[in-house]
Design goal:
two-stranded antiparallel sheet, alpha+beta, 190 residues, 7 strands, 7 helices
């Protein structure tokens, strides 16, 4: 984030604090606008950026094209685009390689992190992770489940604490195969 936009955020935070009745000059709030601008630069760092931090390996179709590669318990944090409050949870993802093409295992959590660092809704985050992986390696199928708690539900409005929202997205071999979907969910939702 450039210095000009940082200053815009800092002034906006001062305006919000003043509007809710706070004294922006009291000791606990003096540095808050700067901290919030720095935090927004971090939690929204993927806005207008493509995911480029990946490595594709060619393992040979005979070796891996029948495998289901599953990565589970990938933590994420994102910001609800409707209220700018956090939502957070875990992602589980499985894919079936095509043509021996696999992605480095550490890149899947990096992909989840990248997609989550912008204003989001959980439904789009779920599908965007799958679609981006599909663009990278064109697997035979992808399954993803995202489970998250939303502070916009817990801190305000309904104030329903501890609810978990679950979204799923299937592509390719997983899309119409209910047995394969069930096996995936059984493995990751233990």
């Amino acid at each position: 984030m450039d210095e000009k936009n940082k200053k815009v955020i800092e002034q906006a935070v001062r305006d919000i604090l003043t509007a809710v009745g706070e004294d922006v000059n009291r000791p606990g709030l003096i540095e808050t606008p700067e901290r919030v601008a720095k935090m927004y630069a971090e939690v929204f760092s993927s806005v207008n950026e493509d995911f480029t931090n990946f490595k594709v390996f060619d393992e040979g179709a005979d070796d891996v094209d029948q495998e289901v590669i599953t990565i589970d318990h990938i933590p994420f944090y994102s910001m609800c685009e409707h209220h700018l409050l956090p939502f957070f949870g875990e992602v589980a993802l499985a894919y079936v390689p095509r043509g021996g093409q696999i992605v480095g295992l550490s890149k899947v959590p990096r992909l989840v992190g990248h997609v989550s660092r912008k204003p989001n809704v959980q439904e789009r985050l779920t599908s965007e992770v799958a679609q981006t992986l599909d663009d990278l390696i064109h697997p035979q199928g992808i399954a993803i489940v995202v489970r998250a708690r939303h502070m916009c539900m817990e801190m305000r409005g309904v104030k329903s604490v501890g609810n978990v929202t679950q979204t799923t997205y299937y592509m390719g071999e997983f899309k119409d195969d209910l047995a394969r979907q069930g096996l995936f969910l059984q493995q990751v939702l233990k």
